[in-house]
Amino acid sequence: MNDLTPFLERYALLALEKQQKLLRLSEGQFVELDLDGGVARFGPSLAAPFQVLGTESDNSLTWLWAWAEEHAEMPEQLMRSSREMKAWLEQNGLRELTQPSLDVDLADGTQLSCIAAEVCRASGFYRDPYEGGALFLLLFSDQIDRQPGFTLDELVGSLLDLGSRYPVRHRTAVASYLRSRGRSFEERTDSLQAQLATGEPIIAEFNADGSVRTINGTFVG
After folding, report:
1. What is this structure's pTM?
2. Are residues 136 and 159 in the same domain?
């Protein structure tokens, strides 16, 4: 467990729910970035103001914060969120993550974007790939915000994907998500029961280490 894990457990499912909302609207459309206007356009269906968080290199396996991109022709107003994240990391005792460049084993773009989407009150994040790496953006859009939240299948899929990539405790992540969404839930020694905003019930059973074992009686762990 690294220093970011507690924050991933608290924020990642909220951020991944936002990604589902974005997927519904963008429908795989190619994104066009207007750097002068600070707007990301996903075909004719969605135009969202954005902030640049940073870049991830596939070659050097490093993350570079947008505020540290000295040679990039990036308007200063598009780096406000990356500076907000720097301040937040410092305030939370994570000063080692405020270096201009980070090894992705310490923190990668997806981890940082999941946390930044909540810290910076964004509507979601977008990974824009290019040859040799990817650009990570935070998006801000009422159109995204108005989309319905997770279905049960989307929640389970996101939870399992999250746990396969990062050392998060499924139980903590689910409880944090439900609490943040204002959903009441009943906890027992090895289970959690709630109703999602869609009206779908969720009964999750967990192993002693907090990893999920079954969802609604179906083995998933």
Report:
1. 0.94
2. no
